[in-house]
Amino acid sequence: MILPQEIIAKKRDGQTLNEIDIAFFVDGLVSKNFNDAQVGAMAMAIFKQGLSHQETVSLTLAMMNSGKVFSWGDAKSLSLSGPILDKHSTGGVGDKVSFMLAAIVAACGGYVPMISGRGLGHTGGTADKLESIAGFNVQPELAQFKRIVANLGMAIISQTSELAPADKRLYAIRDITATVASIPLITASILSKKLAAGLDVLVMDIKVGNGALMTDLKQARALARSITTVANDAGVNTQAIITDMNQVLGNSAGNALEIEETVKYLTGELHEPRLHQVVVSLAKAMLINSKLAADGESAIVKIDRALASGKAAEIFAKMISALGGPNDLLEKPWRSMNKAEVIIDVLAPCHGYLSTMQTRNIGFSVVGLGGGRTSNEQIIDHSVGFDRILPIATKVNRGDVIARVHASSKVSAELASKQYVEALEFSDASVAEPSIIYRL
Q: Residue range 219-241: average pLDDT?
């Protein structure tokens, strides 16, 4: 009989796990034959020792098969007339790309069954952001999820107990054991969910920078290779794009605040340039790889039309309503979301150009405000965070508003404001705007 501690010791000592070892661990995640301490120890052993390509493949497939695996073989009965595709981000601060992107791709004829995650460490979670909206159900029955995808072209939900349940437990424990930034664990976590969704095409948004899990290009490229190799070997057409996370993406960071920015984006009120460039780059790749567009030029035309016509916004609004949210989110977003008790301006401490932003620290400030978790059971405050965030290279004068804090109390707001200023550096000389998209 195999014991959990034997598997942990084997990986702790740098040995290779075979399929039986990995299957035993994954089964233990679901059955809880591995207790939380043992799962944390196993995650740390993998974090320290890594996994080979074959170990990563085995872990990915075992976690994918730990629950229900979608089949779209009944696509005709569901009236699916286009490819099934998705995007996944490795996470960052202010990353609300999934909402805009899924709506745009659906408006262009794709079907996007997006299984999203919770916040990890300092990074925000798509499912947490959706739960800012009163009534929204991030865990519907899978049959309902499939119907909504078929009817609207998209639906975004959280991981359910039916889908890759082994990853759901491991994901939560990684978050609180400092084992998030492991390339094999990230690869297996992402792909176990994505492969279970029965995709034709996957586009990965690999974030790099001081606010990302991968802090340098070498790490980001290694993760891109790991994910694309494993996914393509599993039969899913997968491309990775590396995007910048050396500053908050968009002008907000915090659950409800990012939903508000999404509404502004889809309705044409605000297209923050860096956010828009990331959305368009990923959408273009999804459309080309799925053959919904012949080339980059035609993809851009389709993307622009989806936004300008209001079709993407309409699809997003219908998805919110179909999953229990309000039917007027686009018109009155704050009618169904809680506003923070205290809102204060963050003021520039000096004259100059905003030169650097410690994005990870800003993400942890959101967590400290209550907008993220420090334990599995923690209930988050969806109203808190930052908005009106100025980007790097902006010229400011002392006393200018460089962001706003949304908090539950004056004390926490003032602390977050102080932390925000401490996360920034200013230069007397002008600075170049950072790159947004990096070459693989």
A: 92
The pLDDT assigned to 76 comes to 46
Instruction: Report d(CA 230, CA 239) in Å as an integer.
Output: 11
State the span(s) of the chain assigned CATH 3.90.1170.30.
Answer: 338-427
Per residue in 351-375, pLDDT tens? 999 999 999 999 999 999 999 887 7
Measured distance CA(412)–CA(405) in Å, rounded: 9
Instruction: Return the C-alpha torsion angle 236, 240, 245, 249, nearest 10.
Output: -60
Q: Give the whole-angstrom CA distance, residue 103 versus residue 126.
A: 14
Q: Locate CATH 3.40.1030.10 in the chain.
A: 75-161+183-334
Q: What span, in angstroms and rounded, lies between the C-alpha atoms of 203 and 10? A: 34
Burial 98-115 (b: 16+ CB within 10 A, else e): bbbbbbbbbbbbbbbbbb
Q: For residue 343, list its beta bridge partners.
A: 406
How is domain 338-427 classified at the CATH fold level? Aldehyde Oxidoreductase; domain 3 (3.90.1170)
Task: Read off the pLDDT of each residue in 114-118 and give the average, rounded to a whole number.
Answer: 84
- List pLDDT tens digits, range 246-294: 999 999 999 999 999 999 999 999 999 999 999 999 999 999 999 999 9
β partners of residue 304:
none
User: Which residues participate in catalysis according to the annotation?
Assistant: 86-89, 126, 174, 189, 193-194
| Residue 75 reports pLDDT greater than 90 | no
Residue 337, both tokens: 């979301």
For 117-168, the pLDDT digits (tens) are: 777 678 888 999 999 999 999 999 988 999 999 999 999 999 777 888 999 8
Q: Answer yes or no: is pLDDT of 397 > 50.
A: yes
